[in-house]
Write a structure and sequence with these properties.
Blueprint lengths: L8 E5 L10 H11 L3 E6 L2 H13 L4 E5 L5 H15 L4 E4 L14 H29 L2 E6 L13 H21 L4 E8 L5 H6 L7 H11 L8 H12 L10 E4 L9
Parallel strand pairs: 1-2, 1-4, 2-3, 4-5, 5-6, 6-7
Length: about 260
């Protein structure tokens, strides 16, 4: 079965990587380009967006790097217009922006609580706000949000705000899916489990004695004996964006090697 995204434009929000390697957004942008899509690589870090665009263009794909703050409505609106000016449509919206801040209700500042909700949840609200009118005019479109196993269970880290934001993202996904199903728009989420991406080395490794200890511990938690990668999220996202998934909407799809099926 060949999955093709030819003649479609994918707006990937969070298409850069926070460090060397393949994060979920970077891998997803490249995978969508390999499936034939025109890609708009959006990131707050323009250099990171340019890196992703360069990888796509080196393989013969079409990609436009755009700097935008996904928590700012005017910035998102401008990025959407830039995408339309270049490619004429937005057929796929992929929301990959995310962050964590450690702390429970006592330790976490109000500012950090709001920051995590803004980056993980408000960003998806804003991209939907500005992309949905485009999809409604087209009478077609696919939105895929990047959730987390932390949206449905405690995963051992003290990041209360992240749990709350990702749980909210799941419900936003289903609300959008049902509201716009009759207009030819689908909305799903992928739910990564324990993953090995540049983000965990930046934001989670401090919870362990060393990065090697982190990798061993996280591998051991997974039923398959290893963490997933950005490519696992990318491949699931390409499928959900394709016609092969045309009757799938409102789904929060675990991409977790089975970890959500058992008690931790």
């Amino acid at each position: 079965m060949e999955i093709s995204l030819k003649q479609r434009t994918a707006f990937v929000c969070g298409a850069g990587s926070v460090g060397p390697g393949w994060g979920n957004g970077k891998a997803t942008a490249v995978a969508m380009a390999r499936a034939g899509a025109n890609v708009v690589a959006v990131d707050i870090n323009f250099a990171a967006a340019q890196e992703t665009a360069g990888l796509i263009e080196a393989e013969g794909g079409a990609c436009l790097a755009v700097q935008a703050d996904a928590t700012n409505s005017a910035s998102v609106q401008s990025a959407v217009q830039t995408a339309l000016d270049r490619f004429g449509s937005i057929d796929i919206l992929q929301n990959v922006v995310g962050t964590t801040v450690m702390g429970g209700p006592i330790e976490l500042s109000e500012e950090d609580w709001q920051k995590v909700l803004d980056i993980n949840l408000k960003s998806a609200f804003l991209t939907c706000k500005h992309v949905l009118p485009v999809m409604l005019r087209q009478q077609r479109g696919v939105i895929t949000n990047t959730s987390s196993l932390a949206s449905i269970r405690y995963v051992g880290y003290p990041y209360t705000s992240y749990y709350a934001a990702k749980a909210g993202l799941n419900q936003l996904t289903q609300a959008v899916a049902l509201q716009y199903a009759a207009q030819g728009i689908r909305c799903n989420a992928v739910m990564p489990g324990v993953m090995n991406t540049p983000l965990i080395h930046q934001q989670i490794s401090s919870q362990y004695e060393s990065e090697a200890d982190m990798i061993r511990a996280r591998d051991a938690v997974c039923p398959m004996g290893r963490m997933g990668t950005g490519w696992d999220i990318a491949n699931a996202s390409v499928f959900l964006a394709s016609d092969q998934a045309q009757y799938i909407t409102g789904v929060v799809l675990p991409v977790d090697g089975g970890i959500s099926c058992r008690c931790m």
